[in-house]
């Protein structure tokens, strides 16, 4: 990569092209004396002390994985990942700030992706700018894999299929999405796991990451998610959309080793599945 004169003068011209760092981050690290060359050794200061960047609110957290680069938290239902309006508190990001504070970690809170408020499952946080840059690139390149499980209404006939329908904003509802010819391309893959009398347990992966994608796609093919009132799901068995992020896989930002976590099904989905099995 081309470097500014001050970076070339610091002896980085020969090693910079081999660093997995975006040019902007490389410039910032050099300007803050976080990257130096000493003979044949390259020294990176990847873990500077930082403010959390968000007020701390205590909440019991189910931590699925943690190292010096990343944190993965199992998000409960009813909690937003980060504030959506100024001054909002009680989000998962606020709780992670409290966790960092109580464990003595001077780390900025950096959630890397979203889950809807009432969707449960693992959320990945980056612990430094380097990890954030690597994760952002991996998300753009679809190298972070997320697998979901949902209870869909009706009996799905195909054992597996893909839903390839564009999604746009519903002009009549500020937060609702809908299938629209003028929307953004959206691709969802599903595999049927178990069929009940009038519901289907289905596992899903995403080819794209549109807002409400799984909820919109399943509703569009006539199988809304149980409990998802916004998209046509009834609440006989569960009071929120029965959608759970079951597995998250990513490459370690430094070593490149494949890592993954599984989040256990929440109690309300376990209860609903058991009730559906009784009604076969």
TrEMBL record:
PANTHER family per UniProt: MITOCHONDRIAL RNA PSEUDOURIDINE SYNTHASE (PTHR21600), PSEUDOURIDINE SYNTHASE (PTHR21600:SF71)
Domain Pseudouridine synthase RsuA/RluA-like, chain residue ranges per copy: 71-220
The keyword Lyase is assigned to this record: no
EC number: 5.4.99.-
Superkingdom, taxonomy of origin: Bacteria
Protein name: Pseudouridine synthase
Enzyme class: isomerase
Keyword Cell wall biogenesis/degradation: no
Family classification: Belongs to the pseudouridine synthase RluA family.
Lineage start: Bacteria, Bacillati, Bacillota, Bacilli, Bacillales
Catalytic activity: a uridine in RNA = a pseudouridine in RNA
Biological role: Responsible for synthesis of pseudouridine from uracil.
